């Protein structure tokens, strides 16, 4: 855990320093076992998270719960656990920064925030705001009544999701109600992708995990720039160095050093015994 926390803190600090973001979104699974943690352990998780992802106060931070935080994947979401998370990270489910309106939806609890009326005053091409839906669980790839309600009530241009630990992009053609594009972002390549937001498509971008403790070799932070005036989204993945490979190298070096130390100790002992034996008088 020490190495994992150090790795996260170092990579996150560098990402924030290099990109200077206005908003940072934590897309859920903030804690290892938050949904089964007692009150004391939950507070430890919270302090640990704040220490790892230390962020300047002027940056807006948005927190979403994941199944590791409140349950819901293999067990039911406890109202008590959900309320505990919301109390720990108290904020509205609808947040506005500049020309972007962020809506936090929760597929685990089937909750959708009420959208402000000004979010839909005109057609998007004539508006000066962009609607962004944030969800821990994927939406477009797993359609259903809940997803239909999200699209109908919030009318998003962009959706950011997580959970699957993959970097993907998919587009929904609102005219046909069918997925028009699905592509996986290649690991460890960081081209700057640009999407038009005024073509009648809804874009969902899945962000990979940033922790190697999730068991995947491909980790990264999502980086996006929304230009409401030009109706574009520029985004990429800031891929992180493979940690498993580095850990195996460390273990190999430590193992070799340990074996060398044992060999040296045995040789020294044998040499000492030989010298002592040779000095015995006849």
Account of the 3D structure:
By secondary structure, the chain is α/β, with parallel strands linked by helices. Helices cover 33% and strands 23% of the residues. The strands form three sheets. A seven-stranded mixed β-sheet has the order 3-4-5-6-10-7-8, with no helix packed on it. A three-stranded antiparallel β-sheet has the order 9-12-11, with helices on one face. It has a two-stranded parallel ribbon with strand order 1-2. InterPro entries: Calcineurin-like_PHP, Metallo-depent_PP-like, PGAP5/Cdc1/Ted1. It comes from Nasonia vitripennis.
Which helices and strands, and how do they pair?
Layout: H1 2-19, E1 23-26, H2 39-52, E2 60-63, H3 67-70, H4 79-88, E3 94-97, E4 100-104, E5 130-134, H5 145-154, E6 158-161, E7 168-173, E8 178-184, E9 193-196, E10 201-206, E11 220-227, E12 232-239, H6 243-278
Parallel strand pairs: 1-2, 4-5, 5-6, 6-10
Antiparallel strand pairs: 3-4, 7-8, 7-10, 9-12, 11-12
Domain Calcineurin-like phosphoesterase: 5-166
Keywords: Membrane, Transmembrane, Transmembrane helix
Transmembrane segments: 247-266
Query: What would the average pLDDT be, to the nearest integer?
Result: 85
| Uncertain regions spanning at least 5 consecutive residues | none
Helix content: 25-40%
Q: What's the CATH topology label?
A: Purple Acid Phosphatase, chain A, domain 2
User: How many DSSP E strands?
Assistant: 12
Gap between N and C termini = 61 Å
Strands of the biggest beta sheet: in what spatial order?
3-4-5-6-10-7-8
- What coarse outline follows from CA principal-axis ratios? globular
Percent strand equals 15-25%
Quickly count the domains. 1
Pfam families: Metallophos
Membrane topology: Multi-pass membrane protein
Main location: membrane
Protein name: Calcineurin-like phosphoesterase domain-containing protein
């Amino acid at each position: 855990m020490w190495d994992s926390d150090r790795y996260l803190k170092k990579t996150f600090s560098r990402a924030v320093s290099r990109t200077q973001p206005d908003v940072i979104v934590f897309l859920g699974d903030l804690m290892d076992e938050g949904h089964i943690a007692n009150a004391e352990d939950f507070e430890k998780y919270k302090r640990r998270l704040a220490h790892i992802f230390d962020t300047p106060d002027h940056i807006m931070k948005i927190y979403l719960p994941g199944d590791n935080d409140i349950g819901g994947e293999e067990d039911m979401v406890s109202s008590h656990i959900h309320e505990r998370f919301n109390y720990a990270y108290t904020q509205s489910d609808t947040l506005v920064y500049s020309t972007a309106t962020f809506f936090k939806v929760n597929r685990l609890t089937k909750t959708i925030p009420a959208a402000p009326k000004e979010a839909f005053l005109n057609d998007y091409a004539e508006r000066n705001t962009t609607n962004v839906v944030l969800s821990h669980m994927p939406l477009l790839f797993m359609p259903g009544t809940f997803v239909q309600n999200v699209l109908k009530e919030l009318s998003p241009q962009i959706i950011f999701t997580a959970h699957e630990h993959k970097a993907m992009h998919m587009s929904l053609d609102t005219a046909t109600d069918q997925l028009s594009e699905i592509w996986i972002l290649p690991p460890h390549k960081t081209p700057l992708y640009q999407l038009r937001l005024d073509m009648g498509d809804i874009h969902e971008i899945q962000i990979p995990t940033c922790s190697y403790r999730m068991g995947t070799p491909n980790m990264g932070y999502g980086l996006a720039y929304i230009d409401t005036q030009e109706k574009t989204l520029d985004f990429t993945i800031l891929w992180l160095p493979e940690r498993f490979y580095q850990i195996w190298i460390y273990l190999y070096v430590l193992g070799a050093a340990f074996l060398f130390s044992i060999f040296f100790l045995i040789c020294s002992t044998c040499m000492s015994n030989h010298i002592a034996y040779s000095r015995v008088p006849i």
